[in-house]
Amino acid sequence: MKNKLLWRLCAFIAVGTVLLFWAIAWLTNHTETSMSFLDKAHQETLYAYGEEAEEIYLEKGEEALAVFLKEIRTKENTWLAVVNSQMTTFADTKMLDEFADRFQIGRSPEWKVHLYFSENPVMEVPFVDDNTHFLIQLPQRMRPGSLLLATRLALQIALPLIILSLLSFMLYRHVMTPLKQLERATKEFANGNLEARAMAAMPERNDELTTLAQTFDKMAQRTSSLIYNQRSLLADLSHELRTPLARIDMAIDFVEQDINREQALSRLRYEASTMRELVEDTLTFAWLNTESPQLNSDDFDLVELINVICEDARFEYPDRALCVSTPEYASIEKSSQLALGQALENIIRNALRHTPQQSKVNVTLVSDNNNYIITVTDEGTGVPESMLDAIFEPFFRVDKARAAKNYVHAAKRSGFGLGLALAKRQIAAVGGDISACNRVNKGDEQSNNSYLTGATKQTGLMVTINLPKFSDAAFAN
User: Fold this and answer.
1) What is the DSSP string of 51-64?
2) Which residues cross the membrane (predicted)?
3) 179 and 209 in contact (C-beta within 8 Å)?
């Protein structure tokens, strides 16, 4: 679901609003109802008035009752009367004009009093005979709901303010908690902690803020990887440059002292060319690694590209056999002939360089669904299993001494360990991938790990390249 945070906030606000109105209505009704009843002490006072009036009437007569009623009237400053069931008053009392037409019966002291009526109700305490009734208009001091106004203000203003503040605080925490984690990770990353990540401390959730944190982590991962790679690349480059620079210094000394002048000049040209190739390859690798470009502007025949590269390689390595197996035609679209050509050239030359003289390198091209599969197999000593992934890292060489012994082409490019690293980035830039594995002859019972024990019955390295066709191109038969 898109906009999960939006829907979550909408649901939270909607439910919170409904709960707010429900709480206000319930609390208002409950509070007003509880405030609409007479206090227990006032109820007992009214019942005591009625019982005492009944007792005086039965024992001392109507005149004594009239005196008692006058005292209560003066004390409570209210109307009261004693009537029979025919609404006839006695004991020197009379019915109020406003009650004469509509008065039926009094209200029990235990009944609810309507707080919204301005006039006080008439309360009734019946005598034992149920034919005589003590009536008294509720004294003002006994009227309930004295705090009704303050209660209504609290329920209608203070309560919504508190609840809305609580809801706002919860929304704030819900939104700001991941943002604070992201801010903390950003500050740590900016201060040099390249391992800082936002999702590590993020609460479990799945919304836009989580996506933002994941995007930050991906950005941080790529940025830190680029920084580490650049640092490593710079360190390796500076290390690789020391040797040719030292040789250049020696050659300059020979020229200045006129010792083997021609040989020294030849060495200067060789070392300058070596440094130029090293710097160019390093810059190309850094560009591919940093920019991650998508090279997809060329349509060409992959078979023709392989054949041209192999012809050049045969010329450079005449003492090795280069066997090529391809169809007549293999069209590839939306790729880069330059990048792919450089990658294949590096891989094939690397295979020839590590193949002994009078041995062979096999290059095959086959089609598999929407991909072309290119394999380059040599007959060298192979690579330790633990290093099969590392050979695609810059300036990595399984045996740095191996490049300088027993091979007459030590001056060729990729002697710095950049060839396969460049090839991997270039193939990735055209949407492909590359991998390597060791190969043994059929019937060879020795393990691929035999090189670890010093055995030499290896039959070389096989590099496999998968390239997307980007079209329905088929092999021509």
Assistant:
1) HHHHHHHHHH-HHH
2) 6-27, 147-172
3) yes
**What residue ranges in 265-320 does DSSP mark as E strands?**
298-301
Q: Kindly report, residue by residue over 20-46, the tens digit of the pLDDT.
A: 888 888 887 877 777 788 889 988 999
| Final residue belonging to a domain, choices 106, 129, 144 | 144
How many beta carbons lie within 10 A of that of residue 372, not counting itself? 23
Element (H, E) at 435: strand 433-438
What tokens does 340 get?
């792919």
> Is residue 78 included in any domain, yes or no?
yes
Domain that holds residue 275: 212-292
Q: CA–CA separation, 143 vs 122, rounded Å?
A: 11
- pTM here is 0.50
Q: Are 133 and 84 in contact (CB under 8 A)?
A: yes
- 3-class secondary structure, 112: strand
Burial class (CB in 10 A: 0-12, 13-18, 19+), 383: buried
- Going 466 to 467 to 468 to 472, the CA torsion angle's sign is negative
Mark whether 341 and 417 lie in a shared domain: yes
Taking the CB of residue 456, how many other CB atoms lie within 10 A of it?
Answer: 9
Picking from 312, 339, 354, the residue whose alpha carbon sits closest to that of residue 424 is: 339
| 367: phi then psi, degrees, rounded to nearest 5 | -110, 140
Q: How many domains does the chain have?
A: 3
Domain boundary among 128, 144, 160: 144
Instruction: Give the helix ranges, DSSP H, for 157-207.
Output: 159-190
Q: Is residue 328 part of a domain?
A: yes
Asked whether the beta carbons of 404 and 325 are under 8 A apart, the reply is no
- pLDDT 10s digits, 62-114: 889 889 989 999 999 998 888 887 667 777 777 666 655 555 556 788 888 87
Is 268 domain-assigned? yes
Q: How far apart are the first and last CA of the chain?
A: 50
